[in-house]
Design goal:
The longest helix has 24 residues. The protein contains 14 helices and 21 strands. Bound molecules: zinc ion.
Length: about 425
């Protein structure tokens, strides 16, 4: 089978990132936006940030959504990258159960089998394997967050995952029984090297586990703010299977879950073929939900426009009120820029006191990200929850803290004031 081009250069991509199809359907244009993590320190004052195009296309043949513009890994993942999963309880809990189920399902030999996490960030997932008794764990990650993994006693290689780092890993640590990559596989612009790297270091009976945000959940829950420059692709299971097949990998298991707004987890192997029933169930459902039809995506963008208009009207009516925004995950930047009236009507963005994003300006705005403790000092009239996928958690926590009757705004999928 001829493998299509899976190495994407900076700039516009006019073909499907999996099958090369040139007849793509562009259904959403989010205009030009700064990078969602391009934060400027408040103490250094304002600086110009770069804006890049952000529009999304659909490949009918693969059931894939893709970003039409590639910014490039080096710009997106500087050494000073901010996101660290270790601070979020939800993420840690997920990693704990993920590690336990993988050890059990694949009969991992805790003393002998090598487990590698690609894009391991601060080592949170590998640390769970360690806590479960696995002795041989290796993390590969380009940014400085890997230093935190090292501190946890995890073996590390600081690099993007490519042929070179794969060769280094193999030489030093041998082949892996289990290779995981969570929230990385949608990001890389060099898919070919990434998958060839996996092929290089995986055992004959090894398992490659990919976990990512899931196309069906993005569409069903109108999560347009998961389309940011880092997310080059939004996968369906259909598309993941098609991609990996080019490289000789078979799907052996798959799961969907509601974690962080909706996830797909797919397990691949070079040799095993015994298919789990789950796989067919998920694939059938993708068709049943009309993910292969353009109409689905037209309706999706209509819903986004409606939500934007509803919120704009609400804010207009309440523009003299004290409105604070809560939480600033990367996706909040997309919401802030596309629902651009928010930039003028929000006082500041509140983040948890331990966040590394404190004392920065939100990308390309004069909105400050400061400690949520400030909301206690001067209670707002409205809290607009930018991390609206975590609305309930934020709502129940802060409802207890506020003394006056503060209202919470959930902007999507339909405007909700609570
Ligand atoms: Zn395609």
């Amino acid at each position: 089978m001829k493998i299509p081009n899976h190495t994407f250069k900076t700039g516009e991509v006019k073909f499907c990132q999996i099958c090369g199809n040139k007849k793509l359907f562009r259904f959403l244009d989010l205009d030009h936006q700064p990078l969602a993590d391009d934060l400027s320190p408040i103490k250094q004052g304002h600086r110009e940030v770069l804006y890049y195009p952000l529009s999304i296309s659909f490949c009918k043949k693969c059931i894939l959504l893709q970003n039409d513009y590639i910014v490039g890994d080096n710009k997106l993942y500087p050494k000073s990258y901010h996101y660290v999963p270790g601070i979020t309880k939800d993420v840690l809990k997920n990693f704990e159960s993920l590690s336990k189920s993988l050890i059990y399902n694949y009969k991992i030999n805790k003393d002998k089998d090598l487990i590698v996490d690609l894009g391991c960030n601060d080592g949170s997932l590998l640390n769970q394997f360690k806590l479960n008794g696995c002795k041989k764990v290796l993390g590969i990650e380009p940014t400085d967050t890997i230093k935190l993994a090292k501190k946890k006693g995890i073996k590390t290689i600081q690099s993007f995952f490519n042929k070179k780092s794969a060769a280094e890993a193999k030489k030093k640590y041998g082949r892996a029984k289990l290779i995981t990559t969570t929230n990385v596989f949608a990001h890389t612009n060099n898919l070919r090297e990434f998958i060839m790297g996996v092929k290089k270091i995986i055992n004959k009976n090894g398992v490659f586990v990919v976990e990512n945000h899931y196309l069906l959940d993005v569409i069903k829950k109108t999560q347009f703010d998961t389309f940011y420059h880092e997310h080059l692709r939004t996968y369906s299971l259909t598309s993941l299977i098609k991609l990996m097949k080019y490289y000789g990998f078979n799907i052996i298991d798959a799961y969907t879950s509601d974690r962080y707004g909706g996830n797909i987890q797919a397990h691949f192997s070079l040799t095993k073929t015994n298919k789990n029933l789950n796989i067919n169930k998920i694939l059938k459902n993708e068709k049943k939900q009309n993910l292969h039809r353009e109409k689905t995506y037209i309706n999706f963008s209509k819903k986004i426009e409606q939500a934007k208009e509803n919120l704009r009207k609400f804010i207009e009516k309440n523009k003299n009120k004290y409105i604070v925004a809560k939480a600033f995950p990367a996706r909040a930047s997309i919401l802030l820029h596309y629902f651009n009236f928010l930039k003028l009507n929000v006082e500041y963005i509140a983040e948890q006191p331990t966040s590394k994003k404190l004392n920065y300006y939100a990308p390309g705005t004069s909105l400050k990200i400061i400690s949520s403790e400030n909301m206690k000092k001067k209670e707002p009239d409205f809290v607009i929850v930018l991390a609206w996928h975590l609305f309930d958690t934020i709502y129940y926590k802060w409802k207890k803290i506020f003394k006056k009757k503060v209202k919470f705004i959930k902007p999507l999928p339909n405007l909700k004031i609570k």
